[in-house]
Design brief:
Layout: E1 12-14, H1 16-29, E2 35-42, E3 48-55, E4 63-67, E5 70-74, H2 76-82, E6 85-92, E7 95-101, E8 107-108, E9 114-116
Parallel strand pairs: 1-6, 2-5
Antiparallel strand pairs: 2-3, 3-9, 4-5, 6-7, 8-9
Length: 117
């Protein structure tokens, strides 16, 4: 699957808040080529944890989701755990951060950054 290939939008969703925040961060960096990478790593208090970073280049096997000029990249290993999930942006007592609302997670921890299947 190439990053330019058409993609089912129901597989991973972006909230309007997440789109707006990515747009603002890309503008702030003055680099229109930046893409938000969402990934999953082992660890955290529930077994897996979410990670977010900005990158300019997509890997050949990445899935790219585009919304309103914003591109989100997900590697194949992470994507299997994120099908049906939503990337959101939250501002609250814990600070400002990207969060994942994931229906695949059996349990999540109090910080919202860690989950188990």
């Amino acid at each position: 699957m190439s990053v330019a290939e058409a993609f089912n939008p129901a597989s991973l969703n972006l909230s309007p808040r997440a789109v707006a925040k990515v747009q603002a961060l890309v503008e702030e960096e003055e680099n229109p080529g930046l893409k938000l990478r969402v990934y999953i790593t082992g660890g955290g208090c529930s077994g897996f944890q979410y990670g977010f970073t900005f990158e300019e280049e997509a890997a050949e096997d990445d899935t790219a989701i585009e919304r309103e000029g914003v591109t989100v990249l997900v590697d194949p290993m992470s994507f299997q755990y994120l099908v049906g999930a939503e990337v959101d942006y939250s501002e609250g007592l814990e600070g400002s951060r990207f969060v994942i609302n994931n229906p695949n997670a059996a349990t999540t921890c109090g910080c919202g950054a860690s989950f188990s299947i």
